[in-house]
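[SOLVED] Need 3D model of a two-part complex

Original post:
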Amino acid sequence: MTTPKDNRKHWARDLKVTLWTLIVPPTIWAVHFLFCYLWVAVTCAKSPTPATALTGFPVATLIATIVALLGILAAGYIARVQSQTPGDAPPHDEGTAIDRLRFLALSTRLLAGLSFVAVIFTALPVIVFGDCR
Amino acid sequence: MTTDSPAYVAPDQNDPAVRKGQEDRLREVWKPPSGWFFRWTDVNNNRIGVWYTLTAFGFMLFAGVLALIMRTQLAVPNNDLVTANTFNQLFTLHGSMMMFLFAVPMFEAVSIILLPQLLGARDLPFPRLSGFGYWSFLIGGVFVSGSIFFDAAPDGGWFMYPPLTTRTDLSGLGADIWMLGLSFIEVSSVAAAVELIVGVLKCRPPGMRLNLMPLYAWYILVVAVMILFAFPPLIAGDVLFEMERLLNWPFFNAEKGGDPLLWQHLFWIFGHPEVYIVFLPSIALFAMLIPTFAQRHLLGYPWIVLAAVGTAFLSFGLWVHHMFTTGLPKISLAFFAAASEAVAIPTGVQIFVFIATLWAGNVKKSTPLLYASGSLAVFVIGGLTGVMVAVAPFDWQAHDTYFIVAHLHYVLIGGTLLPLFAGLYYYWPLVTGKKLSDRLGRTAFWIMFVGMNLTFFPMHLSGLLGMPRRVFTYPEELGIGGLNLASTAGSYMFALGVLIVCIDLALSPRRPKAPRNPWNAGTLEWLALPDDEDWGIRSVPLIESRYPIWDQKNFVQKVDEGRFFLPDAEEMRRESIITTVLDARPLQVIRLGTPSVKPMMTAVALAGVFILTTYHLYLLSALSGVATLACVLWWLWTGTAEIPEKPTKHIGHGIEVPLYTSGPSAPGWWAMFITMMADATAFSGLVFGYFFFWTIHSNFPPTGAGLDGPGVFWPMVALALTLTGWAATVGAREVHRRGNVAAGRLLLVLGIVATLSSLFAGLAGPWYSGMDPELHVYPAIVWTLAIWTAVHAAIGVIMQAYTLARSLAGKMTPVYDADLRNITVYHHFLALTGIVTFCTIGLFPGVA
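Solution:
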């Protein structure tokens, strides 16, 4: 566990941490995933021929991916600051408010890492496939 | 939560006479019912959980025997032990039973036993709901599995793909038995999920903040939430499926605009998360037993939470990998292949956490640990072939071959069955006070381990050599006779291992009691005494560590001497403590349901609805429906939201909490909210169907006689009425809360009138347009959405009337207003359902 660099106040530490904030990064993954899937599914189901090109989709994916990654980075950054809230001694598994906060924040941070990778995974097919075949 | 009033004198826990008095009262309050019939009306988690577990275990053995018959048939080429038709029934029932009657219920059963113990609670928050779930499961399970004795078992594969299964000339009663019998069990699964979520979030002992929660509880929370989002799409699919079979509404019939692929989507949106729903609880058992045998805290607690939550999310992005060969665009397949590869990350994380904990600890070799490590090895093999078939081009080769059979059995035996045996050997002393035999356990393990590999490893090869799944025999020229004979030999070996476990269990009553906490574990459940009391826990402890038995000084003694919270049952009521979600601060003492015949009667009545519908006895089925409603109302009226005899209660250590709360701090409110999340998910499955049909048709909605849509007028009238009913209910809650009871009642009456009118207005659109649901899928799906909303409006009206009656009967007051607050949650969801339905069927045709 990292030790806090300093004890100065930080805006991110004032944000409320709940079970809902824990699932922000994977929810961003889910929205990004659905966006990509639904765009393709609707376009291709509506197209008369499989060779229909997915016009605009690569750019849309790029934008959506950047937005999603920025969202995940923001959630991860906030979680990182919160997970370094100073107070209790390591290994931070006591029944205190600070350790509970650090736990939720660290879990959020780890989920942000996973979601970051998963969003990139979702975006990769657009490099290879350009139509509905 | 307040501090005690000065006049209150706390009991002296140092006085043995005081403690004896408390124990006598607790014993009396928690005494199980007796008598040849009434003993079955018990609702205590320790009994319901054991019945549930044994029943699920029984279904597993039954489904295992079905598998042995299949393997015997396949032992040699061109065998004729069973007919093709029987073989179809065997594999369909084997898969369906293992999934719906063993894996999922077993997780719920084990959780019903363990969760209150792990959380230091006296019971789960809704014991009667557990009873209802169990009886539903038993009746539904016997109905489905018994069908094979009448040659009427489902025979379309465990995923029941239409059109084979929806065409009544190609499939018989079995398809209805599958749909309706298992829908009934899905209802009980959702009920259990509601109970487990509320249990984990609200019934933790004081001090057990989220970061101190046993990891088993984290897994259960995640899995129960997954059930809420995974099972409802299948229930929606079941609704469409039965409408097609019973009423000829063509949802999956391509000739009339339907599409069989919609079923595959709805089924696998359920089916893939299902794999993780059965895997995560089993791996959760490892998270409990590995620290015990490593004799140290589990390393990487947040990493396990990452793994559980991450897996839960990603598992909903995998469903199309079961549909790689259906001709979807390659780019779509690639999205799902990507998610399927990504899910390997969190799955791997948990395995590394377990290995690291064992590495860092002082490992004590034991039978449970042997099963755990063996199952990890098996699971990893299944996981690796999973990564292989997640690659679409490889899957095109392997799809529907025995390679897949091998893959899924490695996953499910390594990820569910063997971990459950680990749990069985670990937790048997908790349930019975006796240890199982290490010698028999280890012998059984090695026989099962070798047998399992001998059965399923050759299937990889027979699959790659071209043996398709679900064939009742194969020609000699294919050259796979030797591999199949090996598989059959292995399956009998595996069965021998299971038999040894059963013998071990059967010998258990003759063995002496083990000492308390025989494994020297650190978590709360091991407070249980070998001669178990029915009260759950003597006093509800204050938790300061993840392993309180190891870390907190004199912990066991303090619990036993009633030195923590709620050591007594002064008012002779069954009680437990409700705490806050994040930090587990005491909020309330709830009075728990006592043994009652009502849950069982409700389950029997509801079973009537499903079973009688199977045989097209619609009138009797409707009568059963009325009986179900009557039972539910009777149950609620007599057993819930009871106004306590005093507003607060002392729970010890100077803390006084209310005996009644309403709104978001009350468990009932949470149960309603969570149930409605599941309901909304099922509804979204139907809406998905509407838009799915829009995407596959160039002219949707179609026009013509019997096809023209419901227009704009009636849907908008219905929407306005729905929202009026909603506003009246919310208004009733607000004015009632402020003390104006008369205005509250008046608004409820207005709500009843508006909601009831919305019901008829909602149906008027398709009715006056003369939409014929048998003609085309468009009228069929519009009618379905309208009927779904109308049924929900009817339930909303019943709730409003019930609440009004409660108020008139003096069972609800401005202070004690849980009923009104809970139905308001329902009406929020009803309003949402109305908005989506009426905008979809009324306005979407104008923009499509």
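Edit: The two ends of chain A are 49 Å apart (CA to CA).
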